[in-house]
Amino acid sequence: MTDKHLQRGAWEWTSTYPDGSRGPAASRLADALAPVPLPWVRCSRWPRAWTVFATEEPRRILRACGLKYAVEAPPHTDHIPEELEHSGRTWRRRVLEADERGVLDLADAFGQAFDGRTAFLYAELPLDAPVELRVHAGADYRMEWWIDGQRGYDTLKGGNGSPVTGRSHAFDLNLEAGRHLFMVRVVSGSGGWGFASEALQRVGGELSESFGLEARRRFVVEDPEQLISLTLEDGNDPGLRLNGEPVPVPLPGMRYRDIPGIPVSCLRPGENLLSRSWRPEEVWQVREDLALEVFSATAAGELPRVSGTPRGVGPREVCLQTAPVLGWATASSLTMACRTNAPVSLHVDIDGHRHHSATGLVHHFVCDGLQGGTDYAYRVSWTDDSGDETVLFKGQAKTLPEGADHFFVFMGDVYPFDDTWERVSGAVVDEGPDAVFFSGDMVLDGSQDAEWDEGFFHPAQTLLASVPFYAVIGNHENNGALFDQLFLTPEVRNWEQRIGAMNIIGIDGTRDWTPGGADHEWLEEVLRSSDAPFVFLMTHYPPFSSGGHGRVDEAGRPKEEPIRQARDFLMPLLTRHAVTAVVSGHDHFYERSELPGGVTGLVSAGAGSRLYSKTTNPLQNPHSVFWQSDYHFCRVRVRPETCTLQAVLLDGSVIDERTWEPRNCPNGKH
Questions:
Q1: What CATH number does residue 336 fall under?
Q2: Does residue 527 share a domain with residue 389?
Q3: Which residues contact 232 (CB under 8 A, 6 or more apart)?
Q4: Which H, E and C letters describe 258-295, residue by residue?
Q5: What is the C-alpha to C-alpha distance for residues 123 and 135, in angstroms, rounded to an integer?
Q6: Residues 158, 90: one domain?
Q7: CA distance 633 to 546
Q8: d(Cα 324, Cα 379) in Å, to the nearest integer?
Q9: For residue range 314-373, what is the model confidence (pLDDT) as tens digits?
């Protein structure tokens, strides 16, 4: 992005008072609050360096020997040990210092984080006089404290519930003069392994005066018309204002790390102002914690933090934020969506024809007039006001075959912890399917914009830009508005399409599927009118599953509402219309169940998420005939006379197979 037309100042803090007066501006919050008599100050002696002992065994060995939360703490000593022999093994020793965020990155120091890795952290605190401290700490994923050999605060039962430097856990210590020894056990989660802490020291009583805070950042735009738009990097605070107005976001309800596409109409020639204000009552809630530097929030609420760097986007900086994602297709057409970092109009050139999108950040294309089963090269470009054209992407895609023989892939559940989704998507590309059908859960939190590109779109760019991709929404999409923008299906949320001998139906399993309702009647009409030899319904929520999401109560009733709906309202409908199979995700493994009435239940949720175990409750899924917890996808070959399924691991081995004959169509059409 260009800074050619921007001159930026730094963020400045100032205190504000009910009479309209303001304190002196300062570049640091602590300096701005210097005239304010805060009851707590940061403990300058709190340790930043910790001596850490951790295990290095691979995951399979740790799990095999049960080395997890049950590891007892080492015996107490009055000093930091030079070495640690514990639980029958030698623990590697390193001295780590907190980084600029205040975090000890244990994964970087000792290897990949996964569920259950353990580290013991030691530090000393010398005190010249008695002191009253409030310790704030966070970990990924669990921690337990010992102070001078006595067990203290712990989160082993429920975990920390926020990022390492997010909402802190706080506890009070009254320490005498002398040297004190801390030991902390930190147990990793699936996605990280880290620790942060700081302490406040009480120095006074309550605040005597109510005050607010304001942060400002000035920047100068010489000529806004030289820019296409403005991007606010690291501008994820919804309270930010630009020239007195809320900073606009592309899609309401989404949360952005970087906010693209801010219109130049929001800018003024000359000086512009970014600002964030906190009312006295907001500051009062967290008055005891204002001295914290590491954590962004406490039990009292969000601490005053501000960020945001304006970057101008000129014609030379326009690029794709999200490369093309192919959507639904036919034998004569392809659809695709993509995103740019600035509001422009794009072109797609394919088969000698040029297709245009409306000016915006999200771009949709329907490329029709094509031949069935044919590979097409395409390119995505844009043209600036001077007529210069820039190619942003080149790809290759294939329309659906015109005949009755089709090859598809079913899979689901990515929200990533490592590179598995990249490997799965690469294996699917090698298979060369006509289309991919995905049963939801692409990211951990679909309302977080940055997760989509980093966790889903970028690792699978080759697959998504070359193979028609049909999706249904899962729970981890969190109803994020971006889902409907980038996954193009024949209709929104509930959709269906006849492809050769198969009728594929996708639904939003969280809708109201009560008989008589609009969604139920729509599905019944689709099923009633279908004469396809094979019919598949795809929903994120399986009616029966042997995993944690499929758990049942004492009466055998599913505890999760979407699964109850699938069992109570969808299954009778699917059985009555002789549906071939219901394809789901949600529980992270592969399972095939042969359900009452002849419908096959498939759970295919091994595209990258942390794998799940099988439950032992016999009431939960008595219909299961095959189960395996491993990363996988499903090949489905559909011909008029037969349909075959193969569940395939990443090494190419087939773990399960199923063949279906054409259904006995209730409407008598075949």
A1: 2.60.40.10
A2: no
A3: 240, 242, 247, 258, 259, 262, 274, 308, 309, 310, 311
A4: CEEEEEHHHCCCEEEEEEEEECHHHHHHCHHHCCCCCC
A5: 14
A6: yes
A7: 18
A8: 10
A9: 999 999 999 999 999 999 999 999 999 999 999 999 999 999 999 999 999 999 999 999
pLDDT in the model for residue 67: 42
- Please give the single-letter amino acid code of residue 135: V
Do 182 and 135 fall within a single domain? yes
Contacts of 456 (CB under 8 A, 6+ apart): 414, 416, 421, 442, 443
Residues of the chain with pLDDT under 70: 1-5, 56-71, 115, 205-209, 665-670
Phi, psi of 315 (to 5 degrees): -55, -35
**Stretch (H or E) spanning 45:** none
Hey, what amino acid is at 264? V
* Distance (Å, whole) CA 66 – CA 61: 8
List all residues 6 or more positions away from 363 whose beta carbon is below 8 Å from its beta carbon.
337, 338, 339, 340, 346, 357
Is there a single domain that holds both residue 166 and residue 179?
A: yes
- Residue holding tokens 């279906």? 660
**Which residue among 398, 420, 443 closes a domain?**
398
What is the C-alpha to C-alpha distance for residues 502 and 83, in angstroms, rounded to an integer? 64
Cβ density class 448-476: b for 16+ within 10 Å, e for less? bbebbbebbbebbbbbbbbbbbbbbbbbb
What is the length of the chain? 670
Among 637, 601, 615, residue whose Cα is nearest residue 549: 615
Same domain, 629 and 498: yes
Helix (H) or strand (E) holding 485: helix 482-486
Distance CA 41, CA 199 (A): 9
One DSSP character per residue, 498-555 reads EETTEEEEE--TTS---TTSHHHHHHHHHHHH---SEEEEE-SS-SS-SSGGG-B-TT
Instruction: Report the relative pairing of strands 309-313 and 270-278 from DSSP bridges.
Output: unpaired
Whole-number pLDDT of residue 34 = 80
Scan for tokens 């509001």, then name that residue.
Answer: 343
The verdict on 100 and 180 lying in the same domain is yes
Task: Answer whether residue 344 is part of any domain.
Answer: yes
Contacts with 381 (C-beta within 8 Å, 6 or more apart), sequence order: 346, 347, 349, 389, 390, 391, 392
Per-residue burial over 123-158, b if 16 or more Cβ lie within 10 Å, else e, is bebeeeeebebbbbbbbbbbbbbbbbeeeebbbeee
355 phi and psi, to 5 degrees?
Answer: -115, 145
* SS3 category, 54: strand
Q: How far is CA 264 from CA 233, 313, 524, in A?
A: 16, 10, 49
400 contacts 523 by C-beta, under 8 angstroms: no
pLDDT score at 256: 95
Handedness of CA 357, 358, 360, 365 (dihedral sign): negative
Instruction: State the Cα–Cα distance between residues 611 and 412, nearest whole angstrom.
Output: 12
**Is 665 within the bounds of a domain?**
no
Question: Taking the model in full, what pTM does it have?
Answer: 0.82
Tell me which residue range forms the domain holding 353. Answer: 318-398
Number of structural domains found in the chain: 4
51, 118: one domain: yes
Q: Is the peptide bond before 141 cis (omega within 30 degrees of 0)?
A: yes
